[in-house]
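ok so dumb question maybe but i'm new to this and my supervisor (M.) told me to 'just get the structure for TraB/GumN family protein' and walked off. so i did the thing. is this what she meant?? sequence i used:
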Amino acid sequence: MRCWVLIVSAFLLLGCASQPQPADPALWHVESANGQEGWLFGTIHSAPRPIEWETPSVRAALADAGTIMVEVANIADEAAVGATFARLAKSEGQPPLSQRIAPAERPALAALLKRTGFHDGDFAAVDTWAAALTIVRQDNDGSDPRYGVDRAVIARANGRPVVELEGAARQLGIFDALPEKEQRNLLDVVVKEADKPDLDLPAAWRKGDMKAIEQETRTGLLADPGLRAALFTGRNLRWTARIASTLRAGKKPFVAVGAAHMAGPDGLPAMLEQQGFKVTRIE
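this is what came out, is it supposed to look like this??
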């Protein structure tokens, strides 16, 4: 599920190692009419290898920032995030997973479960959304959250305030609040996308290719109107209000969130422009 490494940060707990890869990720400068400023930095939450993400422009912006804004401040605390997931995911008396998907998709689900080491009845005490995310995590491309750029940005805070736009409980709570119909749509997308060839999104991110990233936000789970509203557009609207308030307060935020949230007319740069800010891509 290719978009997860760019959109959802709270539940990616994996493992591997390799040599660093150079990157030139997208960065925007934001300025108000009164001269208050900040930066938008599109991150990747997980990657197969370490990334040399701190370009001179990113380093200068990060050094000049007064506040760091991220999706989840304790993203490196995997035990705490995992406990939050387990608490929200718990739901007794659920039917077998095959009964929560259209009959036509059941053979593909069976093949995916076999590949990931699960069985149809393994999720009897788990919400549908949580089952879908668990399968996605297991059916992974080898990405490791230890190489996620969000963590690295937080580590550079050096005593400055780290403000979370969402937090793990709220982020996972968005999934937990989905109507069962949308949760099953999510599972359906996971199954249908499992065997499709993926665009190399980590590579697109390293090149700052926002056109490719924006195209990906029109596919898969974000092509479903209900899921798009819950997981993408609605979150961006809430974050824009928080970011705008922080900018106007003169706190010079460095906003580091999944790069997909920067993409297209529903992305943070476009939404801040609609709020009257001047937004300029500088890298």
